[in-house]
Amino acid sequence: MQILVRSVTIIDPRSSYNGTQNDILISDGEISEIGKNLDSEGVDEIIEGDDLHVSTGWVDLYATFGDPGFEHKEDILSGLTSAAQGGFTKVAVSPQAQPAVDSKAAIEYLLSRSASSVVDALPLGAQTKGLQSLELAEMFDMQTSGAIGTSNGKHTIGDTKLQNIVFQYGKNLNLKMYSFCQDERLSNGGQMHEGTVNTSIGLKGVPSLAEEVAVTRDLYLAEYSNVAVHFSHITTKGSVDLIRTAKAKGLKVTASVPAHHLLFTDKSVEDFEPNFKVNPPFRGNEDVEALLVGLEDGTLDAIISDHEPHEIEAKASEFSVAEAGIISLESTFSVAFQATENRLSLEQLIGKLTSGPRDILNLAHPIIKEGNEAELTIFSPSFKWTYLTKDIKSKSKNSPVINKELTGLPIAVINKGKFYLNS
Question: Which of 190, 201, 252, 404 is deepest in the core (most CB within 10 A)?
Fold first, then answer.
C-alpha cells in the first residue's frame, strides 16, 4: 500500500527534516521518499489538508482496558481503536482486569489479542498477585512473555517492605517499575481533592498529603535500591517539588501527569457531574500551575491519557457512589494542547508524547527519514472539532469533554505497515 502525505510539517528533532514542510511517501510501511511535490501516480491514499503536521508515533504510558473480565467497559481491540483515533501507535496497558494481569498467560493473551491492531499494546504486569498488595507476582514469567514493565495499577502497596522487594526484584529483571502514589489510609473515602471546594459542597476530600507521603516513601526506596522508578500519576505541587529535588540529586526517577489534570481543577466538581470524578482527583489551581511548570522544566517527562472506561450504569448515579475514571485516549492531545498552548511549544508538547515516553520505557526512537519503517502520527494542531458521542470509538462514553469544542485533531496513524484514518 502506498500513502502520500501532502505538505506536512515534520516534527522530529532527530530527523534532518525537522521543522520543514514536505510531502512524505510511505510504501508498504516504509518511508520511501520525502520531498516537494511528489508524484501521486499509483498512490492508494492521499492525506492532505490545512496545517498538517507529522511526528513519530505517540506513546501512551498508562491506559486501562479491563479485558479480561470487564469487556463491557472496553475490550482490547476497542481500546486500541480508541488509541488509534487519538493518534497513538503504542499504549502501555494497565494490569487492572479481572483476573488481574499477573501471569504469563495474561500477558500472552493481551499480546495475542492485540496483534492485528495498528497500535502496539505494551503490557504492564501486576507487581503483586491479584493487585492485592500481599505477595509478589511472577514478574520474571511476565517479562519473558513480553511485559514492558510492572505496575500495581491504582493500588499503592501499603507494605513498605513488600514495595522494597518489588523494586529490588524488578531492578534485577530490568523491568520498568511504575509507582502509583496514594496512601489509602489518608485517602480512604475521599471523593475529590481536599480544599475549599470540597468543604463548601460537603464531599470528603483526598488530601495532597496522601500522594506526597507515598511519593516520599518511594523516592527513599528508589534511592536505597538504586532502581529506576516511574511515578505514573503526579497531580500535586508537593509531588512535583519532591521529584524535582530527587532528579537534582541524581535519582533515576521519571514522572508523568494525566492530560486532563492539566486543564480541570476541583472547581469542575461543584456541579456534582460524575464525569469529573477521577482517581487521583482533579486538584487546585496551585497544583495545576505546578504541573505546567514541571512540564516546562523537565521535572515531568510525559503526559498520559489515564484512559479508564466505565459503562453508563457506573457513572449515571450520585457523585459519591459513581465509579472514578474517564475515557481519554481520543481527547488526550486536544486537552493537553489546550492546557499547554501558552506554556509549551508544539515541539515540546509532542516530545511529552513521543521521546519522553520512549525514554521512560527504553524503547527505540523511530526517525523520520527515507528508508526507515514508518511509525507516524499525522495531526492538525489548529483544527477545531467537537467531541460527539456518536464519534467515540471506545465502548464507554464517560468523558467530561463530550459536546465540547476542542482544538487539535489527530488525523491518522501509520505503524507496522498498517494505516488508520480518523473517522
Answer: 190
